[in-house]
Design goal:
Layout lengths: L5 H41 L36 H5 L14 H20 L3 H23 L4 H14 L8 H26 L6 H14 L4 H22 L11 H24 L2
Helix pairs in contact: 1-3, 1-4, 3-4, 4-5, 4-9, 5-7, 6-7, 7-9, 8-9
Length: 282
């Protein structure tokens, strides 16, 4: 499955990345709320209480995107990735309230990463898989930043998709992918229990185990040491910076998922040369 012009495939991937980046913003905002509604309904049902009826249906498709301040429904022209934000000068067209710059940043980041993936892997199954991997990592990153949740509805399909793609060896052989999934989960599971037994506290959530398992399923067990090392280093630097710059308390939890996701994307693009460089130091 090859396109005649690599430049055309790259351009398509950039446009697709920008468009899906807009949808990722919706997922980041709505999926945690949908999960919370589901948990409340399940708790009420277990207690034998009436299931609360929401005032409006909330899915990834409904209702239409709107301004959280005035309720103005976002039109198609106001929803063009990045361009609409610049045209509106970062403000709602109805009430003038400032729109968070994170929306165009997520769209632009998705477009850039997808364009690089298309150039790096070409119009192949690996190239299409890289786009899915990037979108999953981005959604998990920002959801974890906001809520300290890593939804199973993203991590588990990501894990199985990685194994399916590697049936044909898109990123690694199937044996390495299966071992990567198992080793990714069990490595953080072991760290979690060692920390809990030593301190009586939980150092991370189960979602982190599943995320590293998904990365292992996509890239193979060989990329796990680099992923763990890179995520730990970045997490330590950011954590220290937060404590120094904004007086982030040591007892305030810092999500680990975003650093795992960032390290996973680094491993996707540059894992092999970085691993060879690391091993060469010894």
């Amino acid at each position: 499955m090859m396109l005649p012009e690599p430049s055309l495939w790259t351009a398509i991937a950039v446009l697709l990345g920008l468009t899906v980046g807009s949808f990722i913003n919706v997922v980041i905002h709505r999926l945690p709320k949908m999960m919370e509604r589901g948990w409340l309904a399940e708790c009420a049902e277990l207690r034998g209480e009436p299931v609360p009826t929401p005032t409006e249906i909330l899915t990834l498709a409904k209702p239409r995107s709107r301004c959280p301040h005035c309720g103005h429904a976002i039109t198609a022209l106001e929803n063009i990735p990045v361009i609409s934000y610049l045209f509106l000068r970062g403000r709602c067209s109805s009430c003038g309230v400032r729109i968070s710059p994170r929306y165009p940043l997520v769209e632009a980041l998705s477009g850039l990463l997808c364009g690089y993936a298309a150039w790096r892997f070409g119009a192949t199954w690996a190239g299409l898989g890289a786009l899915l991997f990037i979108w999953g990592m981005m959604a998990l990153t920002f959801i974890d930043f906001d809520t300290q949740l890593l939804p199973d509805s993203i991590t588990l399909p990501l894990l199985w998709t990685g194994l399916l793609l590697n049936l044909g060896g898109s990123f690694t052989d199937l044996k390495s992918a299966v071992i990567g999934a198992v080793a990714g989960y069990l490595s953080l599971w072991a760290v979690y229990w060692a920390f809990k037994l030593a301190t009586g506290k939980e150092g991370m959530g189960y979602g982190d185990f599943k995320l590293l398992a998904a990365i292992g399923a996509w890239l193979g067990w060989q990329m796990l040491p680099l992923t763990i090392l890179a995520s730990s280093m970045v997490g330590a630097v950011v954590g220290i910076a937060l404590m120094v710059a904004v007086k982030h308390g040591r007892n305030v939890p810092i999500p680990f998922g975003p650093y795992l996701a960032a390290a996973g994307i680094i491993a996707l693009f540059w894992g092999k040369p970085l691993t060879q460089l690391y091993l060469g130091l010894y």
